[in-house]
Amino acid sequence: MEQEVAITSVIGGEPAQVHNTLFPVFLKLEQMHVLLVGAGNVGLEKLSALLANAPAVKITIVAARVSEEVSRLVASSPLITVHERAFAPADLDDKDIVVIAINDKETSEYIRVLANGRKLLVNVADTPELCDFYLGSIVQKGDLKIAISTNGKSPTAAKRLKEVLNEAIPGSIEETIRNLHEIRNQLSGDFTYKVNRLNAITRPLIENAGARRERKWKKVATYSAAIFGLMLIGHFIFSYIPLRELADNTVAWYGTLDKNFHWIVLAGFLAQLVDGALGMGYGVTSATILLSAGINLSAISSSIHTAEMFASGASGYSHFKFGNVNKKLFKVLVVPGVIGAVAGAWLLSKYGDSYADYLKPVMAVYTLFLGVRIMFTAFRKIKFKKKFRNYRILAVAGGFLDSFGGGGWGPIVTTTLISRGRNPKYVIGSISLTEFFVTLASALTFFSLIGVSHWQVIIALIIGGLLAAPLAARIAGRLPKKWSYILLGILVIIWSLRILVKAF
C-alpha cells in the first residue's frame, strides 16, 4: 500500500519545526482486511495501488456500480469480494482499513464518522481534511520502497518525484541491498561499529557511477547519426539536388518534386504521432501506403528506415528528456534488435527485387497480421506481473521483421512487453529510444547495399516525423489507448486488404 513519507530534521537532539507532521508507516497490508467503497475510475486507481504493493491483500469492494476495468482486476485476484449495492454500516465489520472512493461528499463523511467510531483508519479520495492517512506515490526497486508525501497538497508533484526517483535509482540496487543484508548478518561488534562499517561500504552508492555509461551511449548515438547524416547530405548534393537551378529559381525546383510530396509529409507526421504516442505504427503505416504506391520492396524498407531514423532519434530523445526511458530495458533490447535489423535488411536487399511479385503479397499479409495484432491488443485483458525472460529473442525477431517487412518493431515488441504487465509509459519510451539504433542499423545496411533511392519520399517522411516527435512524446500515455489501437488497426487492415486485392 502506498504510504506517505515525512522527513524530520533533528537539531541538537530535538526535532525541528516542520510543516509536514505526518508520521511515515509501512503497513503489512496482506495481514489486514481493506474495505473499498466505490468502483469507478477513482476506485480503480485505489485498487490498482493496493494490489501493486500487496497482491495478496484481502479486499471487500462495495459499490452501486462496478466498472469494467475494476471487474478485470477483481478477476485476477481470488481474495477480492465485490458487493454491487449501496454501502451498509455492517460492511465495516471485521475491517482494518477503509478507503472511500465515491463522488458523494455527504456519504463519504457519513462512512468516515461510522468508521472512526469503530477506531478504523479512513482515506477519502481527493478530500485531505477527511483523511486519517494518505495514499502517496511510491517507488519500488525490489525490496527498496520509497513513499512520497506532499502532505495531501499536490499528488501531481509526488507523481513527478516518483518518476525522477524511478529513473535515478538503478535496478541493481536490489542486489546491493541483498548483499548488504548478508554483510550485516556477518558483522560482529557493537552497533556503532556496524553502522560505521556499513556507511563506508555504501558510500559509493551516492557517486554518479552511471554518468560515464550514459555519456558513452549519447556519444555513440550522436556520432552515428552525424556520420550517416553527412553521408546522406553528400549523396543528395552530388547526385540529386540541381544546385544551379535551385539558385536560379527555388519555386521551379519545388515544382520538380513528387506531386504527392506534401501528402507524404502529412503521412510522416501522422505515422510518427501514432508511433511516439503508442510506441508502434510508424513502419507498418508507412509500409502499407508505399506498397500501394507500387514502390519496390527494398526501396520501401530503405526509405522508411532512413526517414524513421531521424524521427525515432527525435522521439527517443524527447522520451529520454521527459523521463520515459527505462535504461535497463533499453540496454537489454538494443544489441539484439540491431542484429535482427541488419539480418532482415541484408535478406531483403538480396532477394527483394528478384522475387518482388511473390514477396509483395507476402508483405501485405504480414502488415495485415500486424493490423489484426494491433486490434487484438485493444481488447486484450490486463495482466499483472507475468514474468517474461526472452527479451533478446523478442528484440532479434522484432528487428528482423521490422527491416524485412518495412515495419513491425512497435507492434511486436511494444505490445508483447505491455501485455506482460510492464508499465506502458516506460515501455513506449524505452522502445522508442531503442528503435533509433535499430532503424540506424537497418538504414546503414540498405545504404551500403543498394544506396539511397526515392529520396523525395525520405525527405517528406523525415520532415513530417520531426514535426510530430515532440508532440507525440508529450501525449504518450494520455490518449485512450483502446480506441487508438482500434483506429490504427483498422487503417492498417484496410490498406493491406487493398494491396492484396490489387495483387490477385
Automatic annotation (TrEMBL):
Main localization category: membrane
Gene3D superfamilies reported in the protein's UniProt record: NAD(P)-binding Rossmann-like Domain (3.40.50.720), Siroheme synthase, domain 2 (3.30.160.110)
Membrane topology: Multi-pass membrane protein
InterPro entries: Met8-like, NAD(P)-bd_dom_sf, Sirohaem_synthase_central, Sirohaem_synthase_N, TM_pro_TauE-like
A Pfam entry, by short name: NAD_binding_7
Subcellular location: Cell membrane; Membrane
Keyword vocabulary terms for this entry: Cell membrane, Membrane, NAD, Oxidoreductase, Porphyrin biosynthesis, Transmembrane, Transmembrane helix
GO biological process: siroheme biosynthetic process
Pathway assignment: Porphyrin-containing compound metabolism; siroheme biosynthesis; sirohydrochlorin from precorrin-2: step 1/1
Superkingdom as given in the UniProt entry: Bacteria
Record field: catalytic activity: precorrin-2 + NAD(+) = sirohydrochlorin + NADH + 2 H(+)
Positions of the Siroheme synthase central domain: 142-163
Ranges annotated as spanning the membrane: 220-241, 261-282, 329-349, 361-379, 391-414, 426-450, 457-477, 483-501
Any single GO CC term annotated in Swiss-Prot or TrEMBL for this entry: plasma membrane
Recorded family membership: Belongs to the 4-toluene sulfonate uptake permease (TSUP) (TC 2.A.102) family.
Classification via NCBIfam families: cysG_Nterm
PANTHER family, alphabetized: SIROHEME BIOSYNTHESIS PROTEIN MET8 (PTHR35330:SF1)
Name of the protein in question: Probable membrane transporter protein
Native source organism of the sequence: Filimonas effusa
Lineage, broadest ranks: Bacteria, Pseudomonadati, Bacteroidota, Chitinophagia, Chitinophagales
